[in-house]
Amino acid sequence: MLRYNIGGSACGSFSAYGKRIYISPSLSQDVLGLVGGTKGSGEGQDGHCQSGNAKAEHDREERVKRRLLQLERSHKESMQDKDDTILNLRELISEHERKLFELETNTDGNRNAQNLPPSASYRHPTPTQKLLDQIEKLQKEKEILLLKVAEYECTESSSDLRLSGDFDVTSQMGSCTTDTEKELMLIKRDKHYLDREITKLRQENKQLREMLVKCGFDVSLVIPSGQLGQDDILKSSGEKGFGISGSGSSPMSQLLSSQDMENKVNKDQEIAILRGKFKKLGQNAMVVDHDFVDVKTAYLALKAEVKVITGSFGMVIAEMQREIQLALADINAQNKDLVDKYLREMKLRKKYHNELVDLRGNIRVLCRVRPPIKEDGTEEDGIVVTLDTNDDSLVTINNKGRNQFFDVDKAFGMNSTQSQVFEEVSALVRSVIDGYNVCIFAYGQTGSGKTFTMEGPRSDPGINQRALQLLFEETRDSEWEYEISASVMEIYNETLRDLLNMDASNKLEVRMRSEGGLYVPGLVTVPVSKLDEVNKLFETGRKNRATASTNMNEHSSRSHCLLCVTVRGQNPTTGSKSLGRLNLVDLAGSERVSKSMADGTRLKEAQNINKSLACLGDVIHALRNKHGHVPYRNSKLTYLLQDSLGGDSKTLMIVQVSPVEKNINETVCTLTFGQRVRNVELGSATKNVDLNKSLQASLGRQLSVKTSFSTPSSPSATSPLLSPSASSPFISSLLPHGSPLTSSTPQLSSRKKTPSTLRPPALTASSSSPQLTGSKKVSLPLNKQTTSPITPQSPTLTSKRPGTLSSPLTMSPNKTNQMHRLIRSTVAPRNFKHERT
Ligand SMILES: Nc1ncnc2c1ncn2[C@@H]1O[C@H](COP(=O)(O)OP(=O)(O)OP(=O)(O)O)[C@@H](O)[C@H]1O
């Protein structure tokens, strides 16, 4: 049988001599196409070649198929013939036996006399019996052989099935080789099998001949002399001596000889067929061998091609990688450029924002995230507050998987140092020397690091000590003469206490002067000129401050602490004076009583702290929404901070937050409060500088020339601001006795609650002036007694604050410039800066 599907998907197969040989599709394609064609010689040509080869191959296979079918048929026939022959032989032999018996009976009369049954003679193994036994044995062997052939066919077909399948080019080639090798092996096995068959048949034949010889047949009659060996003839003539050899003239021998002849012819035919088969198989094996070599060559060529392609792919890939790297480098450079531009823009934006903050008088808000502490527990991955590395004004809180963003003016991370934080506020501190009022306060939940940032440990001091040190350094070598003094107080359970004088009888009260301004009678104010004195002062304050250990903080501040620093300057040459005040406030931390488990005294403290912080929130809310009434008086804290929160002050708040998840609610509240505070507009702060009279007169004269003034009304007229001017009894109480700036000194502008008509005329450079943008307004209060043409009735230059009554101030640019140059050269202290921080 031959089954071959050219170009089809089924695997080709042919069966030879009862065994099926499969050719895998890949092999069939390779044998019929690839081997015959030249790879890469073009589709059409290749296809044509392949189809030509396939046709030839097909024809050849068809021929093989036909021949094999013939072979198979003839084999079957020969087997059938063989069986028939054996049957005939048996019959012949039994006939012969019978005749032999009869002959024996005739010859031996005793046998009849003894009346022995003929079968008795069969009891003894006679040669005929042996012959029959052998024939039977051969028959059995043949059956076993046929069974084995059938088994073999089964194994063949299952292994063929395994061989079918699709592979890639390389594996196809590999499988082609394997298939071809397998086929070759099968063919060889077939050949071997056929060889054995032929040998067996020969043996059978020989045995049959021997049997015939033994039975007394003339072998030469049935076997051509050419095929009969000399031994056979000798044997046949020598054995038994039946004497039927020779001419075979007896009728039985004639009958046998015709049958034998027929058998012999059949056998010969069979052998010839088998020989033909064998030859054909040999030829097939050669063809397959040849094909195998071709396939192997093609396979090797393809392998080499694949290698070349892989190599060229490698080169292409390397080239592409290089190009990608170049593109990436290009993109990175562009990105860097963009990031640089972005950072530049951010800087610029910040600068403009700061200017806007100055113009609006917004409270600036910084944020500091403290590192985790032991009170936070051991939550390793509980850090929820992160900062943006590219934008230092963004705080992100991961609130249960959702990010919340908060804008601040600048954020400091967990690793920020005290000096980095101070660096950010140092410009503000410096402006105190220029006569500004500055308030820096730390806000946040208990244990969030307020005291650390404001006070700090002795080894790494915070803003308080660094601010005083900076003031000392900045004022030391100035042409101006400065006096710096400090007082420290706390608000504990809504009671104001002097931390430098803990005399129980010394009860402090905040008082309001009739003309406006707050003061604290009896508060100790200590002049300081060097760091040692400051440290002593802080030590006393620290010792006297109310602290206690709570669940949230081992050394929790139970009070709001205020360090008030006053800087008074005087220019000995011009007689000009300045007064700046720096309020450094370490607020007590808000706390959830449920968390801090406070009770008794601690509970009372917590309630008072929370109440005053709530009042602070109300004040911020009112200021932010520009309410007519701001509830400063609801707590001692807001009453004292009135000046800083709603007055003529540069105010900065540091919101302190804990980084860990367990404090997330407090952190969100703190940052939300910080955002609200950030939106409060206080208006531009003004300097408190007092020019001497002659200078005022000179300035007045210059300004009077062809100048018409507008009078910006001041919010101070309606706002109960606490001015740090010497006119404020509160401030005067901070000053050492006999200070040139006494409460009776009307030179420093007290713009609070003073009707504009009664207010001493103040000279204010408009912020619209090109030289003085942002907070470059200078308030120059003039003495009432001055002969300046700027009288109370005349238009007054004063701080331009939102909501003030104003009349347009017009001044020729030249005059304005002249005036500002004059102000800067004569009035401005050494550190006068046009930019705020
Ligand atoms: N930036 C920081 N670096 C190192 N440790 C810090 C930092 N900030 C705070 N801490 C530590 O955290 C703890 C709590 O800080 P601190 O006492 O300043 O908090 P607080 O906000 O003032 O608390 P309270 O309101 O209860 O007084 C202290 O042990 C302090 O040393």
Automatic annotation (TrEMBL):
One of its GO terms (cellular component) is microtubule. This is Kinesin-like protein. Residues 362-680 form the Kinesin motor domain. Pfam families: Kinesin. The keyword Cytoplasm applies. It comes from Lymnaea stagnalis. Residues 38-63, 104-126, 702-837 are annotated as: Disordered. ATP binds at G444, Q445, T446, G447, S448, G449, K450, T451. It is found in: Cytoplasm, Cytoskeleton.
